[in-house]
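In response to reviewer comment 3 from the previous cycle, which asked for concrete evidence that the modeling workflow produces usable outputs, we include below a single protein chain processed end to end. The sequence was submitted unchanged, and the resulting structure tokens are shown without manual editing.
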Amino acid sequence: MDPATDTLSDHELMLAVRDGELDALGELFERHHGPLYGFLVKFTGSRTAAEDIAQTVFQRMLKYRHTYRDDGSFTAWMYHLARRCAADHFRKSNAAPAATDPAELRHHADDAPHAGDRAATRDDHALLHTALKRLDRDDREVLLLSRFQELSFNEIAAVLECSVGAAKVRAHRALRELRDTYFQLQKENLS
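The workflow returned the following structure tokens.
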């Protein structure tokens, strides 16, 4: 990494790309490819589709760099592009996104828990995976942006092209729907 670009913010790097310094896009790629790919894997349920869409996002960043505004958030702009690229992908393939494997939703701890704890956690993750899979695409999207990608509601509102209040309401409703579905599945498994 170039020490000069290492100290620049994402916003400053994108302004440089917009102004013709195309090497700055490499730094943005290094910083954001992993989180973007992770979001897209969870959103599409397909590693292959996620990689294709992520590549398309960075290609469009370059192609549409002139549309980046000085007052915007780079992260919100990137996820907005990702949302459009995913929609194009689904339209072309006539496929809807599916939730991912539960193993992709959990983080591995350094200390190995007891086998019984691992089994219970695996069951909980499987239920969460199933509940997430049952949400409609819009609900899943807002949860992934808010809970997994940790975007602010201002950024989510920009991505979803709605007000901040509407983004908060959508996230709250989606979380409530996920919780209700999860507990219903849990109850069914105990029966």
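The first helix runs from residue 3 to 6. We consider this sufficient to address the reviewer's concern, and the full set will be provided in the supplementary archive.
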